[in-house]
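Handout, section 4.2: multi-component inputs.
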Amino acid sequence: EVQLVESGGGLVQPGRSLRLSCTAAGLSFADYAINWARQAPGKGLEGVGVIGTNPLGATTEYAASVKGRFTISRDDSKSVAYLQLNSLKTEDTAVYFCSLLFQLMPRKPPVWGRGTLVAVSS
Amino acid sequence: NFMLTQPHSVSESPGKTVTISCTRSSGSIDSNYVQWYQQRPGSSPTTLIYEDNERPSGVPDRFSGSIDSSSNSASLTISGLRTEDEADYYCQSYDSNIQVFGGGTKLTVL
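Output:
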């Protein structure tokens, strides 16, 4: 059974940092690109960024709203991806989700985790 | 950069068919695959449709996806509506590999 669990969320003051984890089980983690998305309270989904697979250089891309503040990395040996959140702002308050996208053929449907809540407040 | 526009809400009766549209603002709708997600309150999104029209195992064939190049839009059609289909639905595509989501459509089944 495929399992995807986000962790590391919590209450943090503006300007501080937080690191979120996305831990997978039941799949070949190294074959998946990892997307991070977020959802502010009562709002829709927003793409945050992505990290590709290591054979393709583990390239990262970020949304303009977080570029320069957030960093995505991965450790395939532990089946974990990370989202480092720096210089947090109140508008970063949201549930953060990771989702995995299989990179080989035939494709598989995206897999989503349950999310972890980040609350930025003084 | 582009946006995906969905209707804010739709409503229909049980047993009927509803179609939710997702219009791409610039660039061709068929230049990147479109996914559709269902999200119930307090839960994470689940994949209903991927790669425009592929359905994951376990998703009923009442759910189908399509692409219309003439209107530059994607559509999610749900037939034989059930009360448990009441949820938020999001379309999603990619821009430089980053997920781009529509604003979401609240489906009411009454």
